[in-house]
Amino acid sequence: MQFSAWFPYRSWMKSVALMVLLLLVGTAGVACTKKNPEACCTTQEDCDAFGLPLGTDCAEGLTCLFNRCTETSCQTEADCPTTLPHCGADGQCFECEASLECSGVCSEGQCVPCSTNEECGEGFCAAGSCDTAIVPRYLPDICDTLESRDLVLSTSFDTSVDLLCSAIAPQSDGTEICVVHANTITVPTSDLVQVSGSRALALVADQDLAIAGALEIDANDSTNGAGGGLSSSGGTPTNSLGGGGAGFATDGGHGGAASGDGGAANGGPATTDPADLPSLVGGIRGSGADGGGGGGAATLISCRGTIRVDGRISVSGGGGAGATLVNPTTIQAGGHGGGSGGYIVLQGVGIEITGALFANGGSGGGSPFTNLQGTFTQPGSRGLNGTHTTSPANGGRIGGGTGGALDNPAGVGRAGVGAGGGSIGFLQTYTPSGKSPSISAATTSPDVSANRELESK
């Protein structure tokens, strides 16, 4: 109900109450002179209107409301009428005086739902309630403290050692998160920030967080992206089989064999959606010592504001190494499987994506090939992450499987010892109840998963 609707409603209610009480008092006057115990008045004018003496009060535990003695004792606010919505420490219901007393806002003594963020002061409006901050996944208390600095990220850094980590957050599986916390965080247009290291990354802004440039948390060949590659999957290559690609959102690609394309049947299986896991995890490594690295793990959090991605964020998997040769004619091991894409998690009161998000898989390493200069092997490529790129990464020459990408499953290694490509990763958003992310004119690979609901406080 809008605020303006309360005034005619309350006037109507009072008029009805007055008519009922006049009838009660009038009837009592005809039959006897005893006062109706439910009738009451609070001012001389009020009492004169009913023919009652000033000081006609209610018994203990009752309040004079619209000239009737009404029960207003309470233990919780659920015991109170809408006209006196609050339960005080003395066990009596009372009208609100300030919005701090309401879950929404206070208007003319009544608690009503909020409809805009502006009504909530320093907080925000979500599903009719004024909240002060979200409760993020993985870092539930991070929004309880405020930072004064505004951070502009324009240079690359390492989560393992860099002083930009304002805190190191442990996780239940033993891994850690590098937390970069500021009042606002911006990656400017045309700036490229490459993030490496063993720890996953959390960019936490008390207010708005804007990615106008590029934030790359990709794997590079067998080197994992920040927070990725904590486990591996896919069959290990042999001298007659290509290695299997890593599975994550989907199965990894099978390696090749003498029996044909994908004949090794050893691609890594799809895994649990990381949104259902207690820890922030990245992508999966490909098979073998030189399998492609897993894409990184990153969560971007705006405690009280909006996340805007006009540029791009990528957590693509690495390409697997090519087949290993003992000499120009002897294969020691086939190509190594590609690593999977990683995991990007956006959490905020508002989320606006008009740029690009990538969690593509790396491709598999190739079989040996010979040219006039000799015999060679070629590694697979990192999952593609360029602007507006949703194509699969090419496999290593000859016969490496392509990496997973939007609408393209991880490719299989071709007949011989070409390796399978790695799976795509996951893209996820979280907003409070009543808020939805805006994903318009955006390029994402894979598609962004269904939005999940955050608690707020």
Features of the shown structure:
twelve-stranded mixed β-sheet; six-stranded parallel β-sheet; mainly beta; 2 helices
Portion of residues in beta strands equals 25-35%
Q: Please work out how many helical segments DSSP would assign.
A: 2
Uncertain stretches? 1-33
Structural class: mainly beta
- The whole-number mean of residue pLDDT values reads 87
Radius of gyration from CA coordinates: 33 Å
Describe the main β-sheet briefly.
12 strands, mixed
Give the % helix: under 10%
Q: Span from first to last CA? A: 24 Å
Shape call:
elongated
Can you walk me through this structure?
This protein has 457 residues and is mainly beta. It has helices at residues 6-31, 44-50, and strands at 62-65, 68-71, 86-87, 93-94, 105-107, 110-112, 124-126, 129-131, 134-135, 150-152, 157-158, 167-170, 176-182, 184-187, 192-196, 200-205, 209-211, 214-216, 297-309, 312-314, 324-327, 330-333, 343-353, 356-358, 369-371, 374-376, 426-432, 438-439, 443-445, 452-456. Strands 9, 10, 12, 13, 14, 16, 17, 19, 23, 27, 28 and 30 form a 12-stranded mixed beta sheet that branches. Strands 11-15-18-20-24-29 form a 6-stranded parallel beta sheet, with no helix packed on it. The chain is elongated. Residues 1-33 have low confidence and may be disordered.
